[in-house]
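Could you join me in thinking about how sequence relates to backbone shape in a protein? Label the sequence line and the structure token line clearly, so we can match residues to local backbone shapes. Once you have written the record down, we can walk along the chain together.
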Amino acid sequence: MKKRFTRFKHTVIAALSAAALVAPSLPASAAANYKLYTVGSTTNVSPTTTFGQVMMGGSTDVDEAFKWMIEKANGGDFLIIRATGTDAYNQYVYDLAQSIGKPLNSVSTLIVTNLNNAGSDSAVIDKINKAEAIFFAGGNQADYVNFLEGTPALTALNNRIQNIPFGGTSAGTMIQGDHIYDSISAGSTTLDSTTALNNPYNSLISFTDYLIQTPVNHNIQTDTHFEQRDRMGRFLTFIARNIQDGEETAATAKGIAVNEKSALLIEKDGTAKVVTQPGAVNPGVYMAKSNEAPLVCQSGSPLTFRNISVYKLFHGSTFNLTTWTGNGGLPYTLNVNNGVITSSTGNVYGGNTP
């Protein structure tokens, strides 16, 4: 059964503002649909902000990426959205802003506790509309899809993030492209590369399309925890499916995959750079583009998909999403034949030097 959830293109928002005390984070709401925790001022502010998009790969957060968002938030209210977990980001982000001399008005964590109803909650929508930065934490991207899909909160989110810094890590990056591997049909099962390559229409694979819309995320499929969890095979399968299912053509299908402790920082004009956390092992970001339609991408048969261009970015490398060209990285080519990947460098992940 095909699990692709292809929707009409939404114009949406999902963010949250801040409110509370200049003190350790405390619950600011016990609403049935969400919990809100805030550090900072309860008085709303409306500074001028600048768009930027952060795709972070998971594991330890990248300080430089948050500093970049903080600068663009310009003393406003920074909103963390999550469906599980704690308010641990609040003090981290608030203190980080103080440390670089760019204090924020507040940092709030909104934890969605009712995935079915929170997207229509007026208080949640208000938090999104008043946020000067929005960041989706890790977790399960299925929760974010279920929370946002078809809701007023999504509309608010998509409207808001056109002009403020926006980002996420792990699951929070998985939802950022035009095409989302939503993990809804997979449930608690982790999809590995071998399973995907051996059957691109495996029942574990399902997609949601055109959920979040930013100035720079068009035609893109994302993946995270990338090299660390050996996800190249499933990533290429996702891109092949986007072509095979008619969501993209061989000329338009693209992907961005991010290693742990790595982040891609994208400006509104499509220029981007990579930053990594000190001590990261095999950090990097992969920019992939198809050049041909898959030769074999059908249910029950291993994938054959050739001539995929990859540009691996390292710390300090730059890339232009508009021209799809980079500097300081490693270009190479991948081929998939009967479910087996080969690389022009002899390494599916390119190698660790440009």
In short: The longest strand covers residues 305-313. The helical segments are 63-73, 88-99, 122-130, 141-148, 152-160, 171-174, 193-198, 232-244. The chain has one domain: 3-343.
